[in-house]
Amino acid sequence: MKRSAPTVVNNLRFPAMPNNLTGCMGDPVVRCPICAGYAQVDDPFSFYSAKKALPDGIEGPSHVWGGRLVVEKYPSVAKWTTPEKGEGYKHNKGVVRCAVCHHIGLHEISWPNDAYYRWDIRGNTLWACNREHAEAILSFLSSKERDETRYPGFEKSLRKLPTEFITAKVRDDVVKAITRTLAEDKRAGG
User: How far apart are CA 115 and CA 175, in angstroms?
Assistant: First the structure.
C-alpha cells in the first residue's frame, strides 16, 4: 500500500496516519458542500502529548486539554473550544478544501452521504474514504480469494463490507460501478 504523504497546511507538516474522521489511511474526500466537486477533508486539530515537545515544524495556536496539546491546523476556519468536563472531543466536523471552487470551510461530515466515492447499487450504498480505498475495494472484490490482509490500512473496512456487495449476484455490478467511477475520476483529474 502506498503510504500517505504528510499533510501540509500553512507550510506546517502533519504526519500521515489514519484520519480521525474516517479511520482510513490518507485524506478522505467528500463532495464539496458548495459545488459538489472533489474536496479533501481534514481534521481541524492535531493532538499531541502535553508532556513531550512538538515535532519540528508544528506551530500555531495551541491549547492544553487534559494531558494533550491541541494544535489548530486551520485557525482562521476552526477555533478550538475545550469540551465540557467529562465530555470528549467529537470528530464529526472537518475542514473541507475544494479543488474545484477553492472553498475552505468547516463542515459537519455525514458518511456516506458526503462521500465523493459513493455507489448506490440495488438499493444499498457502498462508499470509500478516498481513491486508494476505492481501489482497494475494487481489487478485493475482483479477486478470487478476497483476503483483506493484502490491503494494509483497509483491512477493517474490507472485513465490514456488507454481504450484499460480495455475493456473486451483485459483485459484477459493484466492480463495474467502481471501475467506471475511477476511470471518469482519472479523466477529470481527481
Answer: 18
Model pTM score: 0.77
The whole-angstrom separation of Cα 114 and Cα 164 is 22
Contact, 109 vs 45, CB < 8 A? no
CB 38 within 8 A of CB 99: yes
Torsion angles phi and psi, residue 42, rounded to 5: -130, 150
Alpha carbon of 125 to those of 108, 136, 163: distances in Å?
Answer: 20, 17, 12
Convert the pLDDT of each residue in 38-56 to its tens digit: 999 988 999 999 898 888 8
Q: How many residues does the chain have?
A: 190
Cα–Cα distances (Å) from 68 to 63, 76, 109, 143, in that order, read 8, 22, 24, 43
Give the residue carrying C-alpha cell 475552505. 104
